[in-house]
Amino acid sequence: MRCLLLGATGFLGTHVRTRLAAAPGVHVLPAGRSGGVLRVDLAGAGPGELGSMLRETAPDVVVNCAGVTGGDAVAMAAGNVVAVANLLAALDRHTRPIRLVHLGSAAEYGAVPAGRPVPETYPAQPVSAYGMSKLAGTELVLTARRHGRPATVLRVFNPIGPGTPASLLPGRLVATLRRAAETGERARLGSLAGHRDFVDARDVAEAVHAAAVSTDRLPGVLNVGSGRATALRDLAELAAKATGVEPPLEDDAGSPRSAAVTWQQADIGAITAALRWQPVYPIPASLRDMGLTAAAPAAS
Question: Domain span at residue 150?
Answer without folding.
Answer: 2-160+200-227+270-275
